[in-house]
Amino acid sequence: MKTIFLSLILMLVCGSVITAQAQKNQTLKVRVNQQKSLARNNLTIKFVSLVEDSRCPEGTRCVWAGNAKIRVKITDSLGKSEIFEMNTNMGAKGASFAGYAVNLTNLEPGLRANVRINRNAYTATFSISKLTR
User: Fold this and answer.
1) Per-residue pLDDT of the chain (133 residues; tens, 9 = 90+)
2) Domain ranges across the chain
């Protein structure tokens, strides 16, 4: 009985720590050719360009899901910057820079059969978290 009780308490404590860690992540939506800064202005993320978009269009059947690749410029509070390529499905989905992990979590709009998307209409969603040691 004591073992079960201690196990429950341990699960509650660990669950609280995991929840607190998850709350530190920030989400940022950036349109192509625009940039946004984190709330604390530690990083600025610029969605430089769409490199390719071969994702499977909605409403169609494809042999594979395809991939979209974007180019992103990340700048820290000191002005140091670096350009990264991020992918939706294949290849690197994110990067580490200036003590942060920046991951591409979504790219909109999705492709649709027989619909051409303006390359300036894309919006990327990023998840940003502070790296800890």
Assistant:
1) 444 444 545 454 444 333 334 346 899 999 999 999 987 768 999 999 999 999 999 888 999 889 999 999 999 999 999 999 999 999 999 999 999 999 999 999 988 877 888 888 999 999 999 998 7
2) 26-130
Element (H, E) at 70: strand 68-76
* Residue where the block lists tokens 């860690």: 21
* DSSP secondary structure string for all residues of 81-99: EEEEEEESSSS--EEEETT
- Contacts of residues 66-73 at CB distance under 8 Å and 24 or more positions apart, as own/partner, are 66/111, 67/91, 68/107, 70/32, 70/104, 70/107, 70/122, 70/124, 72/45, 72/46, 72/47, 72/48, 72/102, 72/104, 72/124, 72/126, 73/35, 73/45, 73/46, 73/48
Structure tokens at 10: 């341990």
Instruction: For domain 26-130, say whether CATH 2.60.98 is its number.
Output: yes
Under a CB-based contact definition with an 8 Å cutoff, are residues 32 and 50 in contact? Answer: yes
